[in-house]
Amino acid sequence: MNTPENPNDYAANAQRLSALWDEHVKHEFATRHTEDTLATMVEEAYVNHVPVLTGGVGRNQLRDFYAERFIPQMPPDTAMTPISRTIGTDRLVDEMVFEFTHTIKMDWMLPGVAPTGKHVKVPLVVIVHFRDGKLAHEHIYWDQASVLVQLGLLDAARLPVAGGESAEKVLHPELPANQLMERG
After folding, report:
1. pLDDT of the residue at 1
2. Domains of the chain: total
3. Which of 10, 58, 84, 85 could be joined to 95 by an S-S link, Cβ 3.0–4.6 Å?
4. Statement: the pTM of the whole predicted model exceeds 0.85
């Protein structure tokens, strides 16, 4: 996409990208419909959950991923708290706090980890690229160490990592900083 000359064109483009992303997320988390999710994406789209390398490339892999590994493996209490959204000419960046109770298998985020029953709250960033009026790719980032600490699978007392405090600090910037440095 070229940068619009007219600020009104830029604003309209930003609204289109935001609406398309919101529609995509709605089909992933609310309607939970794979084909409607895929309809928001170009044919050769890809998804990369960077910390664990899950997702897929192309319509067939993404269909299998969404239908088998992502949509049905989303805990019922999943919630997302928006923090910020930045929109460019062909990119959107969403920052949020993602939370859930680990009551079901979640291969897309925790491959090979049996449900722990524990609650997780983690900052998450999604970078979406658009092409031809649809999503072309998603890069999704979160701090896997924070998730593993909250599930009791990583000992934060022995490593320079935080658990749910990282999400709380994003939600409440006034909370104390530098606690890991002071601990050592």
Report:
1. 46
2. 1
3. 84
4. yes
